[in-house]
Write a structure and sequence with these properties.
23% of the residues lie in helices and 10% in strands. The protein has 186 residues and is α+β, with helices and mostly antiparallel strands. The protein has a domain of 104 residues. It has a two-stranded antiparallel sheet with strand order 1-2. A hairpin with a 5-residue loop joins strand 5 and strand 6. Helix 3 crosses helix 4. The longest helix has 22 residues. The chain starts with a helix and ends in a 30-residue tail after the last strand. The relative contact order is 0.11.
């Protein structure tokens, strides 16, 4: 009986440790000793790279520099009347403008809040700045679609594979009728 309890405790301990590692709670960073308590040493790790497919650009729209190379950038918030008139910005409307996300000097890049330029294949980093809970869930495969092996290479769909970045809310779907039962098929 005592042996079963200790084995159960060991299994439970391993399960808790595995859950902590999966959630990123445990750290392999070096420990810094201060008195009797050990605290993790802060380490600035580079952003983990994720295997993602090419973003779903509208045909003929990328690279943006094809059209923008001869244009002088105009940072003024305004209604677009010549190009991109089909874009309806319904994403924190009244608070956002094109150049909050798109880089003014290199239209083939996105711009993070800290000024870092990232490619459209790293747009998840841009989205994650405001949508931290969704970004966290996306990285561990809970939000969005991730394919691959449980213990090997994985591929993640970008936010823009499911959400329009300019109008990300899902539109209501009309429910389909239920399937026909096999005995009712003629």
């Amino acid at each position: 009986m005592k042996r079963d309890r200790s084995r159960h405790g060991l299994v439970l301990g391993i399960a808790v440790l595995a859950a902590c590692l999966a959630a990123g709670v445990a750290s392999s960073a070096p420990l810094q000793q201060r008195g009797n308590t050990a605290k993790p040493h802060a380490v600035d790790a580079p952003e983990k790279q994720f295997a993602v497919p090419t973003p779903p650009f509208t045909p003929g729209i990328f690279p943006c520099s094809e059209c923008h190379k001869e244009m002088k950038p105009n940072p003024t918030r305004r209604e677009l009347k010549e190009e991109h008139t089909n874009i309806v910005l319904n994403h924190a409307q009244g608070q956002r403008w094109c150049l909050d996300c798109h880089d003014i000097s290199n239209r083939d890049k996105l711009r993070l809040v800290n000024g870092e330029k990232v490619g459209f294949d790293e747009s998840f980093r841009l989205c994650g700045q405001c949508h931290g809970d969704k970004y966290r869930d996306w990285k561990v495969g809970v939000h969005g679609k991730r394919t691959g092996m449980w213990d090997g290479e994985k591929q993640y769909l970008l936010c823009v594979h499911c959400h329009n970045p300019h109008d990300p809310g899902f539109k209501p779907l009309v429910p389909l009728p239920p399937p026909t039962r096999p005995e009712n098929i003629k």
